[in-house]
Design goal:
single chain; 122 residues; 7-stranded mixed sheet; 4-stranded antiparallel sheet; 5% helix; 53% strand
């Protein structure tokens, strides 16, 4: 398994969770890392991304509430989720992304983790 996500669970609205994704060293060192989510009946969508240099970008729906970070020593990316809402309920997937062509802002996902379920009760 090259991407292993964990940390999902059941939480009340307004609560917090932290997701983790452990990656192989090869994947982690050369790829930007992202989190995506898929709610029931909906398509998978972008949540957040952190580049190898530490720059971050977020979906508008999670800005100010979620924080993505990476620990290069542990080959792990995290998603700290605060002030959770019922609409955050989804399966969360970590991913290894790469910008191609370089400098275009177009990203492709090269590897997917297996997903971890986050359920927010209202």
């Amino acid at each position: 398994v090259q991407l292993q996500a964990s940390g999902g669970g059941l939480v009340q609205a307004g609560g917090s969770l932290r997701l983790s994704c452990a990656a192989s060293r090869t994947i982690f060192s050369i790829n930007d890392m992202g989190w995506y989510r898929q709610a029931p009946g909906k398509q998978r969508g972008f949540v957040a991304r952190i580049t190898t240099g530490g720059s971050t970008i977020y979906a508008d729906s999670v800005k100010g509430r979620f924080t993505i970070s990476r620990d290069n020593a542990k080959n792990t990316v995290y998603l700290q989720m605060n002030s959770l809402k019922s609409e955050d309920t989804a399966v969360y997937y970590c991913a290894a992304d790469r910008e191609w062509p370089p400098g275009t802002g177009v990203y492709y996902t090269h590897y997917w983790g297996q997903g971890t379920l986050v359920t927010v009760s209202s």
